[in-house]
Amino acid sequence: MNSVEGVVIASRGGAPSIYLRNITKAYGETIALSDVSLDLRAGEVHALLGENGAGKTTLMKILYGLSQPDSGQIEADGVALKIESPRDARAAGIGMVTQHFSLVKNMTVIENIALASAKTFAIDLARVRAEIVSASTRFGLDVPPDAIVSSLPISLQQRVEILKALMSGCSYLILDEPTAVLGPNDIDSLLEVIRRLRSDAGIGIVLISHKMAEIEKVADRVSVLRRGQVVSSSLANGITSKELVTLMVGEQQSGAEQRQRSASPSQSQSPILVLESVGVTREAGGLSDVSFAVRPGEILGIAGVSGNGQTELVNVLSGTTQIDSGTIVVEGRQLGSNTPQSLMRAGVGILGEDRHASAVHALQVVENLILDCVEKFAGKLQLRRKEMLSHCESAITQFEIKANPKQAFGTLSGGNMQKVLLARLFSRNPKVAIISQPTRGLDVMATNYVRSLIAQASKQSTAVVLVSEDLDEILELADRVAVMYRGSVVGIVDHSEASRESIGELMAGIAK
Amino acid sequence: MKARFVLRASTPWWRGPLLVGAAALLTILISAIMIRWAGGAPIPAVRYMFISPLQSRFGFTESLLSATPLVFTGAAVAIAFRAGYWNIGAEGQLLAGTIGATWVGLHAESLPRIVGVPLILLAGMLFGALWALTPALLRTRLGIDEVVTTLLLNPVALLIITGLLNGPWRNSESGFPDSDVIADSTKLWIVWPNTRVHFGLALGVVVIGLCWWFVGKMSGGLKLRAVGLAPNAARIAGLPVERTLLITALASGGIAGLGGASEIAGVAHQLTTGISNNFGYTGVIVATLAALSFVGALLVALMFGVITVGSFSASRALEIPSQIGQLVQAVLLITVVCALVIQKYRVVWTIKRSEGRK
Ligand SMILES: Nc1ncnc2c1ncn2[C@@H]1O[C@H](COP(=O)(O)OP(=O)(O)OP(=O)(O)O)[C@@H](O)[C@H]1O
Ligand SMILES: [Mg+2]
User: Fold this and answer.
1) Which of A108, A217, A348, A472 has the greatest count of CB atoms below 10 A from its CB?
2) Out of A98-107, A175-184, A357-366, B261-270, which region has the weakest mean confidence (pLDDT)?
3) Residue A149: per-residue pLDDT
4) What is the pLDDT of residues B285-339, one digit of tens each?
5) Are residues B255 and B290 in the same domain?
6) How far is the C-alpha of A317 from the C-alpha of A310, rounded, in Å?
7) Are B298 and B239 in a shared domain?
8) Same domain, B164 and B234
9) Do B226 and B79 reside in the same domain of the chain?
10) What's the pLDDT tens digit per position in B147-186?
11) Are A24 and A71 in contact, with CB atoms under 8 Å apart?
12) Do the Cβ atoms of B218 and A68 come within 8 Å?
């Protein structure tokens, strides 16, 4: 720890530690954190769990100087730290990878890292490159130093972020839901990196996640936040996943129910959404010859290793990317062009993978909720505010959203943003719902709830296209699974024949 | 000591007005220092500039008159900016409006006033919107940045006026490059007897009211705000982003053009090359000072009217440059922008102490 040159009062247990003491933080009437205390130790992976809106991000933002507590303090080895900005935090050896990356997209990896670690006016790029190479071999974080950041898949961008934090000399690293944006393989390699950082470099890691399996694999210590309070903090091997879930949500349990598939998934009905050799020409990452059909009440899962065209497919179906060849037919009518409006008018609803890009942060929750059907609330002379609010309140109750209708959307916790957008999608009763990564960043309860919502919608004969990197989610929900590889659909498997293995082979481009 | 800006969690309704008041006081203070520098006595100058226009009937009504075009341009800029359409062309659109208005005014001899007045106003609005059309199409069809195109069209409008006044519209009696006086049937009513305050001001207030209602209360206004704040999110929600921008741009140009017609039909009664005293550019300042609120734009425009009249009388009485009025407006811009930052962010002063590291 480079900044604490002062006298060090004996630290408990020998290893250097950071203590957060009695942290309280309120936003207006919302109490995000109340009297939270937490110990972080070097060489330990500390998992932080909690429902959406429990205060995890808020707590970590305070530690990293992005936000200031109303009261409470932070100590390092018995010395009070003043952390008023990320700069102070970095000086104290604390690094953070936030969920929204802070990389300059049009610069190369080297330039990004040089920017972060530059202390002098002149930047010696050759030296930075050498440092990157040595650091990436040391930590097992391979990155292509000369690549432009925007050309890298999200998993590599994340590595650059981690490397950036490590190279500025941090001894504590906060990772806020790092696995939420990754596919299964990338998750495994990230967990491996985390293990190495802990064991080989002695770095203390805070890992925020909603996925129990990951916690079980790497955490040494687990703390659970509930409604802004620490309800448990203990060694990981002394506690089971089940106990953790109970701690997170309290006693109320709603177990995941298996989706009941109807015996013959509506084979009789004619398809409502048909894609016929749809193509998007790109130098990289386009679509070629994508064809599939979805019937009312059917859930078509789209599986694939990330970056094989799923994002582009969703963009095509939301109308933000125009197709260059092929046709899209909804309810027997061919769409002239796939603009957002024409798709919406045809009854196609969408939940995009990037919730930040799908909503207007500065507008209120209620305004965002009705943004796709403003006309429905248009009175003769003004919007019918009262009806908007009551619509919003019922959505908040129904979807268990932790929000106030008049709160700015941008101040919601990640999971609650997702719920608002889901509420928006389902309240228009779409004939076809395109749903991308619906449970990304959602807590256990919310995940179950959202999956049951999707099942529910299909029961009411909505056709669902479910794009997800979570294979379990697809296997649980989908009637058929289409697998994408290099921009094409390489196979469509019925759920009775779908297994991790059969899908996995298709995903890897092995089977044909 | 170190200053840090922290985003405020909530803003009570009174903080805005309070800060604007503080900014005004600060502006007066800074202006006083500048006036001192220019060799004038600051206290009488401040009195001339900010207070005496409000003390006499003449000063007050002349201030209202000066404020009138700024009400239009302030509203025009504010509504465009709210939609994220950066229209810097209110100047050109206002000038185009004066052309349209003059054209009607010169050809409406035999009409009754109840027809002539709507006609001249409509012409101004139409020409203003038309002037805004090209940049709006370039932006919504081809993605060409509207800041540059709207700005560059401003001098073009002035050149057209110069051309007209030196050609077909040259004054038929004097031969000077001023147009003939417009027909009586197209002159606006005087709304305050025995002063020059005309119907244009009332119209401006109505426009402000309509803008406020539309943007704040109507469905189209919600769409407009969403497009302005996050165009991509609006697109995903199925809002017609390009159409919203196009319509807003035309409305903005129309409002500015209406301001031009109001100047021609209300006070000038003829077209001259000096018809606009930078009203369009000042509109950008007015809208910014008002933080893009419409009622705020009305108040700022009225205040600017007072300052304009006041700085003239101050310069005459105290023999200081009359540009002092523009200087005050510029200082006001800076202090108010600071106030707006403080409204959104809390400034935390921290004193580096060594105790923290015991
Ligand atoms: N700037 C803000 N203004 C108002 N409320 C806020 C703000 N930031 C956070 N909150 C509120 O504080 C609470 C905690 O939010 P936080 O983001 O810490 O949750 P989280 O545990 O990270 O949840 P998630 O798992 O969904 O990311 C939420 O109720 C949220 O709405
Ligand atoms: Mg969070």
Assistant:
1) A348
2) A98-107
3) 87
4) 999 888 899 999 999 999 999 989 998 888 888 888 878 888 888 888 888 888 8
5) yes
6) 11
7) yes
8) yes
9) yes
10) 999 999 999 999 999 999 999 999 999 989 999 999 999 9
11) yes
12) no
Same domain, yes or no: B271 and B204: yes
Please indicate, yes or no, whether residues B200 and B342 belong to a single structural domain of this protein.
no
Could you tell me the two tokens for A26? 């309120």
CB pairs under 8 A between A and B: 88
Q: Which residues line ligand 1 (CB under 6 A)?
A: A 27, 30, 32, 50, 52-58, 402, 411-416; B 9
What average pLDDT is seen over chain A?
A: 86
Number of compact structural domains in chain B: 2
What tokens were used for A382? 């003004």
* pLDDT for the residue B71: 98
Give all domains of chain A, ordered by start, each with its CATH number.
Answer: 2-106+168-249 (3.40.50.300), 268-347+430-512 (3.40.50.300), 360-429 (no CATH)
The closest of B140, B163, B346 to B250, measured between CA atoms, is B140
- In order, the DSSP letters of A100-122 are S----TTSBHHHHHHHHH--SSS
DSSP annotation of A151? G
- Residues B288-311, buried b or exposed e (16+ Cβ, 10 A)? bbbbbbbebbbbbbbbbbbbbbbb
Residues B1 and B120 in one domain: no
**B7 within domain boundaries:** yes
Q: What is the rounded CA–CA span in Å between residue A508 and residue A506?
A: 5
CA of residue B274 to ligand 2 center, whole Å: 58
- B159 falls within a domain: yes
- B interface residues, A as partner, C-beta within 8 Å: 4, 6, 9-10, 213, 217-219, 222-223, 225-226, 229-230, 232-240, 348, 350, 356-358
In a 13 Å sphere around the CA of B236, the CA atoms on its Cβ side amount to 22
Taking only the tens place, the pLDDT of each residue in B128-148 is 999 999 999 999 999 999 999
**Which of A30, A371, A407 is the best substitution to test chain B (most B C-beta atoms within 10 A)?**
A371
CATH number assigned to the domain comprising residue B259:
1.10.3470
B334 and B239 belong to one structural domain: no
Contacts of B233 in chain A (CB under 8 A): 357-360, 371
Least confident of A85-99, A108-122, B78-92: A108-122
Q: How far is CA A115 from CA A93, A118, A164, in A?
A: 18, 5, 9
Percent of chain A with pLDDT over 70: 92
- Report yes or no on B295 lying in a domain: yes
pLDDT band at A4 (very low <50, low <70, confident <90, very high): very low
Residue B87 lies in a domain: yes
Predicted complex ipTM exceeds 0.95: no
CA distance readout (Å), B288 to B5, B74, B108, B272: 21, 9, 38, 28
Q: For A267-282, write each residue's pLDDT tens digit.
A: 667 899 999 999 998 8
Taking CA atoms, A470 is separated from A129, A474, B110, B156, in Å, by 35, 7, 78, 59
The reported pTM is: 0.82
pLDDT tens across B9-22, in order? 566 778 777 887 88
Query: Cα(A269)–Cα(A262) distance, rounded to whole angstroms?
Result: 13
pLDDT at residue B353 tops 70: no
Range of the domain at B349: 1-29+324-358
Tell me if B238 sits within 8 A of B244, measured CB to CB: no
Beta bridge partners of A274: A293, A329
Contact list, B350 vs chain A (CB under 8 Å): 82, 84
